[in-house]
């Protein structure tokens, strides 16, 4: 004898909703599994492309070594920067109306990891009253990082860490570009 159950409309709706949520969580580019694959699928740009984008938005950059060699830690390089990170800088500049000066890009010498400077996900900015007030008054405070740096998260999910003498920003996306 075969046992049969009939799912009513409430159970059917719940199962459908669960399937949609699980599909979104595990779809490439989203949710739980998306983070690992996104790190390797980012569109990379050249130093020249990044500087052109920054110049067009009124963003400046500087280097303690006065150079742009990716393999020299005292340089500020944008070689292999993620396009979304460059666009995120442009978004921050236009949304805040503040002067932005980039002091760190993809050059060697920063901490490693998937969402690192070297992998094109991070930019460092000079501290300034305007940008500091914008970050602290616009974004959500999310607590301190393992190294003690206080952090704020933008509505788009990018994370701004106050490292004392500069802002360390992790761009997971372009910030609403």
Describe the model.
This protein has 177 residues and is an alpha+beta fold. The chain has five helices and nine strands; from the N terminus they run ααβαββαββαββββ. It has helices at 9-26, 31-41, 47-57, 83-96, 129-138; strands at 44-45, 60-61, 81-82, 101-104, 122-126, 140-144, 150-153, 159-162, 166-170. The protein has a seven-stranded mixed sheet with strand order 2-4-5-9-8-7-6, covered by helices on one side. The longest helix is centred in the first third of the chain and has 18 residues, at 9-26. It is globular and about 35 Å long.
What tags apply to this protein structure?
177 residues, two-stranded antiparallel ribbon
* Morphology call: globular
Biggest sheet, open or closed, and with what strands and sense?
A: 7 strands, mixed
Tally the helices: what do you get?
Answer: 5
Number of strands: 9
Strand content: 15-25%
Instruction: Report the helical percentage.
Output: 25-40%
What's a quick, concise take on this entry?
With 177 residues, the chain is α+β, with helices and mostly antiparallel strands. The strands form 2 sheets. Strands 2-4-5-9-8-7-6 form a 7-stranded mixed sheet, covered by helices on one side.
Q: Would you spell out the secondary-structure blueprint of this structure?
A:
Layout (H helix, E strand, L loop, with lengths): L8 H18 L4 H11 L2 E2 L1 H11 L2 E2 L19 E2 H14 L4 E4 L17 E5 L2 H10 L1 E5 L5 E4 L5 E4 L3 E5 L7
Parallel strand pairs: 2-4
Antiparallel strand pairs: 1-3, 4-5, 5-9, 6-7, 7-8, 8-9
